[in-house]
Design goal:
The complex is a heterotrimer of chains A (358), B (131) and C (112). With 131 residues, chain B is of the alpha/beta class. Chain B is built from 2 helices and 7 strands; from the N terminus they run E-H-E-E-E-E-H-E-E. Chain B has a 4-stranded mixed beta sheet with strand order 1-4-3-2, with helices on one face. A two-stranded parallel ribbon of chain B has the order 5-6. Chain C has 112 residues and is of the alpha+beta class. The chains are: A alpha+beta (358), B alpha/beta (131), C alpha+beta (112).
């Protein structure tokens, strides 16, 4: 049987970010997918030699536009761990609230992109309509819609006052009501189910072997969530990892839909329990030492390896983002799939290529 | 609060054996990080077992750096090892999936390993007076 | 039943007011506290250069001797570090976004 090579990307209507895949196809079945990345490679890891460690928070936030807050938070947590900085508890709670808001907006963005990838334009528009409400809360509390700019080494830069907390909770009630309407469509609609059910099945063993993280791993039955490590305020909040056992694209979609409601519940708990006090401590001196810090981004586990040698600039800054860990799974899922399922399979791991390539 | 993690420096020859033992114990490969120091490369392999992180560190000399691939044990390692090769020029022997240097298409090859590559200086723009 | 979920949403939103605004014919409702463009009040400035030292991108240059303040708007990321550190309240962040620029000019203010 003759093989054709179809180039997919870097420009493609379903791709949020540029990645190139050479799909080797026999008739309509994809036999192999060869990736080629590097279109958005900015060499941010080398920039650490030029910017001092306090300014680098702004660079770390801009590694990605969708998961930007948790990048900044993980960087600050890593430097604070090296320098042993006592971050005040109010700052921990505020970071948790913003982290969960970031997770809600990221999952809504993904739900919209998935609907768009399947051709369901109106559902895409509805998801992003609800996302606008979330971004309005973020803009009112931090000043920026996408790049929050509110984490700094030693705490946070802005506070959420009592009035703002009340407004946020009122908005969250409206958002939750809208989310129930949309997730009902995602989980029950026949056309969505026929595109997602049984497509791209990843068994529990395969998911573990290939080093998958995040919702991809949890949809295959492994209950691993980095928030259980207890960073920021998570050790004082009730949270159970959301899992499914089917391991197909429908299960991954269902895990993300349920995580939306879990995030709303976490925000409500955090805003209810937030202690009074300062929001930041002053940090003097330079870091010396190394640490590996892991947190849970919307796409999975992100790993920051920092090495400092006592000077103003860090010696090594390495980010291993969740999409990098999920790429081998995506390449495996693409083998043997139908050509029309390629957009669904590429989107089902929630690819964030600008994170992957830094 | 430094999270629960361990770091152990081992010799290159002991790498495959230790990784095999960790794989048998059910650990997940978390990341492989390469750091360019003045005359050597430090490779850190991190593994996760139910939330606790253990790392193995291997030091290879800067000239003609070679390290065996762990792709036969952990299938997903090929991405990390190709990235190490493309950015640092560390030769990984026995790659399961080899992209022959085409994974990262950068203008400057092996940019991170060569510490003599200077970062571009920003050019100042023309000035508009607004007094 | 499964087809009715989306139909209900579609009908509901077809009959209610659209959630979008007709920008740019209707001005954007600015949210208080939003970080937009930097506003410089020349009269309050004493040219202490604290803001230029704190700026993470190097968008500000202050010359104390010539009393000159130069701002590169394309490099500014509206982080607000200069606003926090200014001792004389001569810097503020407005809520508006800047207009598109066709040339890469820096703005310079002179105090003499």
């Amino acid at each position: 049987m003759a093989r054709t090579i179809i180039p997919f990307g870097p420009q493609h209507p379903v791709l949020p970010e540029p990645i190139h895949l050479d799909l080797v196809v026999e008739d309509e079945k994809v036999v192999e997918a060869r990736p080629s990345i590097g279109f958005v490679h900015r060499g941010l890891e080398k920039l650490v030699e030029k910017k001092d460690y306090t300014e680098f928070v702004y660079v770390a936030e801009r590694i990605c536009g969708i998961c930007s807050f948790i990048h900044g938070q993980t960087y600050c947590q890593a430097v604070e761990a090296i320098m042993d900085v006592p971050v005040p508890p109010r700052a921990h709670y505020l970071r948790t609230v913003w982290g969960e808001l970031s997770r809600i907006h990221s999952h809504l963005l993904w739900l919209g992109l998935m609907a768009d990838g399947m051709g369901f334009e109106s559902l895409f528009m509805h998801s992003w309509r609800v996302r606008e409400r979330v971004l309005n809360i973020v803009e009112a509390t931090t000043g920026g819609r996408v790049i929050f700019g509110s984490c700094k080494i030693g705490g946070v830069r802005r506070d959420i006052g009592a009035g703002a907390i009340k407004d946020t909770l009122a908005e969250l009630a409206i958002i939750e009501r809208d989310l129930r309407e949309i997730t009902k469509v995602f989980l029950n609609d026949n056309s969505v189910k026929s595109r997602l059910c049984g497509v791209g099945v990843l068994s529990r063993q395969e998911a573990h072997e290939m080093g998958c993280v995040g919702p991809v791993l949890r949809a295959s039955g492994v209950a691993q969530d980095m928030r259980a490590l207890g960073y920021a305020a998570y050790q004082e909040l009730e949270m159970k990892p959301v899992t499914r056992t089917a391991g197909d694209s429908y299960a991954r979609c269902a895990v993300r839909c349920e995580e939306l409601f879990q995030s709303i519940s976490l925000i409500r708990q955090a805003l209810g329990k937030i202690p009074d006090g300062e929001i930041a401590v002053k940090v003097n001196g330079n870091p010396k030492g190394e640490v590996i810090m892991r947190t849970e981004q919307p796409r999975g586990e992100v790993v920051y390896c920092l090495k400092a040698n006592g000077s103003r600039n860090l010696q090594r800054f390495r980010v291993r983002t969740p999409t990098f860990a999920n790429l081998p799974a995506m390449l495996k899922l693409l083998q043997g799939c139908e050509l029309a399922d390629v957009p669904v399979l590429v989107l089902t791991i929630d690819p964030c290529i600008s994170c992957t390539e830094r | 609060m430094i999270p629960d993690q361990t770091l152990e420096v081992i010799a290159v020859s002991a790498l495959l054996e230790r990784v095999r033992a960790l794989h048998a114990g059910g650990s997940r490969l978390v990341q492989i990080c390469a750091t360019a120091l003045s005359c050597q490369y430090e490779l850190t392999y991190s593994f996760d077992l139910d939330g606790s992180l253990s790392s193995l560190r291997v030091q290879v000399p800067g000239e003609d750096a070679r390290v065996p691939s762990i792709g036969s044990i952990y299938g997903c390692a090929f991405l990390y090892e190709n990235e190490m090769h493309d950015l640092f020029n560390i030769k990984v022997e026995g790659l399961t999936v080899d992209f022959h240097g085409n994974l990262y298409n950068t203008a400057v090859k092996y940019a991170f390993g060569d510490t003599t590559v200077p970062l571009a200086k920003p050019q100042p723009g023309p000035v508009l007076r607004r007094d | 039943m499964p087809y009715f979920q989306m139909s209900w949403l579609a009908v509901k939103w077809a009959l209610s007011k659209p959630p979008t605004t007709r920008y740019p014919f209707v001005p954007r409702r600015a949210i208080a506290g939003s970080r937009g463009q930097l506003v410089f009040t020349r009269d309050n400035c004493v040219y202490c250069t604290a803001c230029a030292k704190k700026c993470p991108t190097g968008a500000l240059t202050v010359e104390r001797a010539q009393k000159r303040f130069v701002l590169d708007r394309l490099r500014c990321i509206s982080c607000g570090c200069c606003v926090e550190i200014c001792p004389k309240d001569s810097l503020a962040l407005s809520t508006s976004h800047g207009s598109p620029a066709t040339t890469q000019n820096n703005e310079s203010y002179s105090g003499t």
